[in-house]
């Protein structure tokens, strides 16, 4: 009887010892539930299985960082990515298609959710226009990548083969830098922008500064730029305690402000809280209603040549301010 017990124990030990390495090679999903030829391929391929485990780890790390996204897109994107990966059965090189899908998705999660430290952030001045400024954050991923920001739009780009310089390609955007100059394309069939790599300088604080509104730049060419006849009638003052005081023509208002300066350029994100104002009727021709309508949509700022530029969400326009007189 004792001999039988030892034999069974030995059998269980041998089974577990042989099973552990096999389980370690499995992907992040249950291979017993694999559906379709692509998931079966991942289960049977050591390298692809390892990439799936890396992706699962990156996705798990990104989830808490995406908790405040509105709308919540991470889970939906992941489902879409799985569908795209499984569509690799249509490719001529099925394994190559799956391999590239994993590498790019891992990089996308690492860069977008800052799961790894950035190498550097570079500001590119383009077309001598604040609306065309590009902020590029570079990551040492595999393959190397960057996230480019233009206003409230972002684009993930990957390093691509190039005869000279560094060329990064995204879905409909590209950035090609060579000897301090860059050629940027932003959008499908958009014209090239000529840009300069601007020497990074620390972001200046808005706290304690005061500004007068001089112009409202519309992204609609038909509307163009509206110049404010009396800048002193539209002012904003940023207090160090997080309060902002406005004069909006014949009205006064207060709100809160919150800025996140970029470490590599005199710019950053900026948002105002709920604005409380007086309700006087301003003279005909005043721009008070437009300013009141647009202030809640401010999303970023840029300090350049002694002026403050506030950009609205979704290319809604740019507010240009000059320093207020003492």
Task: Characterise this structure.
- By secondary structure, this protein is α+β, with helices and mostly antiparallel strands.
- It folds into 3 domains: about 80 residues, no CATH class; about 80 residues, C-type lysozyme inhibitor (Lipocalin); about 110 residues, Lipocalin (Beta Barrel).
- Helices cover about 30% and strands about 35% of the residues.
- The protein has an 8-stranded antiparallel β-barrel with strand order 1-2-3-4-5-6-7-8.
- The radius of gyration is 27 Å and the shape is elongated.
- It starts with a helix and ends with a strand.
- Please tally the β strands and state the result: 18
- CA radius of gyration: 27 Å
Spans of at least 5 consecutive residues with low confidence: 1-6, 12-23
Count of spatially separate domains: 3
Sheet with the most strands? 8 strands, antiparallel, barrel
Q: Name the CATH architecture of the largest domain.
A: Beta Barrel
Structural class: alpha+beta
Mean pLDDT: 85
Strand content: 25-35%
- The sequence of SSEs as H and E is HHHHHEEEEEEEEEEEEEEEHEEE
Q: Please identify the top-level CATH class of the largest domain.
A: Mainly Beta
Domain Lysozyme inhibitor LprI-like N-terminal: 31-109
InterPro entries: DUF306_Meta_HslJ, HslJ-like_sf, LprI-like_N, Lysozyme_Inhibitor_LprI, MliC, MliC_sf
Domain DUF306: 204-311
Keywords: Lipoprotein, Membrane, Palmitate, Signal
């Amino acid at each position: 009887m004792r001999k039988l017990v030892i034999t069974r124990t030995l059998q269980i030990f041998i089974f577990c010892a042989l099973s552990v390495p096999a389980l370690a090679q499995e992907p992040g999903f249950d291979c017993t539930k694999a559906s379709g030829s692509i998931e079966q391929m991942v289960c049977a391929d050591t390298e692809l299985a390892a990439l799936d485990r890396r992706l699962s780890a990156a996705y798990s790390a990104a989830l808490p960082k995406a908790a405040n996204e509105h709308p919540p897109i991470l889970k939906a994107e992941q489902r879409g990515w799985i569908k795209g990966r499984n569509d690799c059965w249509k490719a001529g090189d099925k394994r190559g298609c799956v391999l590239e899908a994993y590498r790019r998705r891992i990089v996308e999660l690492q860069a977008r959710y800052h799961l790894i430290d950035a190498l550097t952030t570079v500001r590119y001045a383009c077309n001598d226009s604040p609306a065309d400024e590009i902020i590029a954050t570079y990551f040492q991923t595999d393959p190397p990548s960057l996230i480019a920001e233009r206003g409230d739009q972002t684009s993930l780009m990957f390093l691509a083969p190039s005869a000279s310089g560094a060329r990064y390609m995204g879905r409909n955007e590209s950035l090609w830098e060579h000897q301090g100059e860059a050629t940027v394309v932003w959008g499908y069939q958009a014209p090239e922008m000529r840009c300069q790599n601007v020497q990074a300088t620390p972001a200046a604080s808005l706290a304690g500064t005061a500004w007068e509104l001089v112009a409202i730049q519309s992204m609609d060419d038909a509307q163009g730029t509206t110049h404010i006849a009396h800048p002193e009638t539209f002012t904003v003052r940023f207090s160090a305690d997080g309060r902002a005081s406005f004069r909006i023509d014949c009205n006064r208002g207060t709100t809160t402000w919150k800025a996140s300066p970029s470490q590599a350029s005199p710019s950053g994100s900026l948002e105002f809280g709920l604005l409380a104002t007086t309700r006087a009727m301003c003279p005909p021709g005043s721009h008070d209603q437009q300013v009141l309508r647009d202030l809640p949509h401010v999303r970023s700022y840029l300090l350049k040549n002694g002026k403050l530029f506030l950009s609205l969400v979704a290319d809604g326009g740019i507010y240009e301010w000059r320093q207020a007189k003492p």
